[in-house]
Amino acid sequence: MTMTPVVSTNVERVGYDEVAQILRVEFRSGGIYDYHGVARWLFDEMLSPYPWRRVGRIVMAHRCYRIG
Predict the structure, then answer these.
(1) Cα–Cα nearest to 37, from 11, 14, 56, 19
(2) Mean pLDDT of 33-43
(3) What is the pLDDT of residue 68?
(4) What is the number of domains present in the chain?
(5) Domain residues for 29?
(6) Contact in structure between 23 and 61 (CB atoms under 8 Å)
(7) What is the mean pLDDT of the chain?
């Protein structure tokens, strides 16, 4: 999965697997999480500046696993 840097105070990079619908979020604090069942539009929103302020609650409503 390709990770893309974003402009954010708490998110470092994001990636997306369109087939599996997995959004990967790497936080500046060092945690990396995979969110499952995420639609493409939500990944697109995560590429905008300061995404977590706008859509963080929507992302966190998905099942997630810490991978790093």
Answers:
(1) 19
(2) 97
(3) 80
(4) 1
(5) 3-66
(6) no
(7) 96
